[in-house]
Design a protein that fits this description.
This is UDP-glycosyltransferases domain-containing protein. With 408 residues, this protein is of the alpha/beta class. The chain is 40% helix and 16% strand. Strands 3-2-1-4-5-6-7 form a 7-stranded parallel β-sheet, with helices on both faces. The chain has a 6-stranded parallel β-sheet with strand order 10-9-8-11-12-13, with helices on both faces.
Length: 408
């Protein structure tokens, strides 16, 4: 009897919450398909892998921990992007490129039988990951936790600036995995494949993943903090609407070193607000079990910055998204889910806008109604997404094909 060889994959995620978690979800799906996987992380990112350690045997799942490279613009002790403002991204990527030499040294000391077959790395790290792959004759496959619409928009611009190097390296890699499902944006998936991955391919894989629909969930991801004025407007809208709600706010940002400029103000909940709404709402400070909340039948809508991982979690959970795009790719996601698909409603414009609390209160109240137009369209799209993840569905089959591609 013959057995099909399964690949050994070296996974290198970007150490940022919204990138690392979907990369870990993808890693879990590949482990379920029989792959052997080694994940490269730095010490303070290692705890993110604990769920995988608890689910998979050490025979098939291993961790490679390398020290975080020092960088003059990265404070000592900082190893993840959520500890930094968005403008520090170039510095973080420069620092992470310092993992090239230690990784090469590690691989040079491995017996040929223990070398990986492929590197599945963040597209943001592809310029140096591709060099490692070439040095050891490995395939390099990139991962982006965004949708095809955002990729097509960003890469279609004449002046891509800072991102040009990563686009070039991604298109020169063996392939690209994006966090979507084919039925969500079929034309755009085909367009990205044809325009940017002409010599290889792009695979799609969806993130896996009281009274019904009566609760609003509010969260703005790991990178966004509201200003005092924005927080006050949102609190006033919740109080005026008398909606039941769960509001996840970030912990206070503490300066890592005296004198650094990476600290931010905490989301400031207005004095007395929690006491006045204690029978209606809950404020969670720090980490919140977002996926569990969004999949609960009582939650009907989701006020979100529209990071793509959050948007997918909202769609899979079957909750209407109230979109307040803040920065970067959020605006591309808004174009897709609001203008093109009609499954979300816009309630905010950008990171500086302060919504009218009266108008926001009315939208919050309407968003949990069964006949809210966006809800009707969302549920039809969600059904397609769930079918894509099931055995025989497009995303399920694409993951099978990805494993097979790694072995060729």
């Amino acid at each position: 009897m013959t057995t099909t060889k399964k690949p050994h994959i070296l996974v290198i995620p970007l150490p940022q919450f919204g990138h690392m978690l979907p990369h870990i979800d993808l890693t879990h799906q590949l482990l379920l398909r029989g792959a052997t996987i080694t994940v490269l992380v730095t010490p303070k990112s290692s705890p993110y892998l604990d769920p995988l350690r608890s689910l998979h045997s050490q025979e098939h799942f291993k961790t490679l921990i390398l020290l975080f490279p020092s960088h003059p613009s990265i404070p000592s002790g900082v190893e993840t992007l959520q500890q930094l403002p968005l403008q520090a991204l170039p510095h973080m990527l420069e620092a992470l490129s310092g993992l090239h030499d230690p990784l090469v040294d590690f691989l040079n000391h491995q017996p040929p039988s223990d070398l990986p077959d492929v590197i599945l790395g963040s597209s943001f790290l592809s310029p140096w990951i591709n060099k490692v792959a070439d040095a050891f004759s490995l395939k390099s496959i990139c991962f982006l936790p965004i949708n095809a619409h955002a990729i097509s928009t960003m890469w279609g611009q004449e002046d891509r600036g800072f991102f040009d190097e990563f686009e070039t390296a991604t298109t020169e890699s063996h392939g690209l995995v994006v966090n979507t499902f084919h039925e969500l944006e079929p034309e755009l998936v085909e367009s990205v494949t044809a325009r940017f991955m002409t010599h290889h391919r792009a695979l799609t894989a969806v993130e896996a993943c009281s009274e019904d629909n009566s609760v609003v969930y509010i969260a703005f991801g790991s990178q966004i903090r509201l200003t005092v004025e924005q927080t006050a407007a949102l609190a006033a809208a919740l109080e005026t609407s008398a909606m039941r709600f769960i509001w996840a706010v970030r912990d206070a940002a503490k300066k890592v070193n005296a004198g650094d400029n990476y600290g931010d103000d905490v989301d400031v909940i207005p004095a007395g607000f929690e006491e006045r709404v204690k029978d209606k709402g809950l404020v969670i400070r720090g980490w919140a079990p977002q996926t569990m909340i969004l999949e609960h039948r009582a939650v009907g809508s989701y006020l979100t910055h529209l990071g793509w991982g959050s948007a997918l979690e909202g769609m899979v959970g079957g909750v209407v998204m109230l979109a307040w795009p803040m920065q970067a790719g959020h605006f591309y996601n808004a174009k897709l889910v609001i203008d093109d698909l009609g499954v979300a409603a816009r309630v905010g414009e950008n990171k500086d806008s302060v919504p009218d609390s009266g108008k926001l209160a009315r939208v919050l109240a309407d968003s949990v109604k069964d006949d809210f137009p966006e809800r009707v369209r969302l549920m039809k799209l969600r059904e397609k997404g769930m079918e894509a993840m099931q055995e025989g569905g497009s995303s399920y089959n694409n993951l099978d094909e990805l494993v097979a591609e790694m072995c060729v």
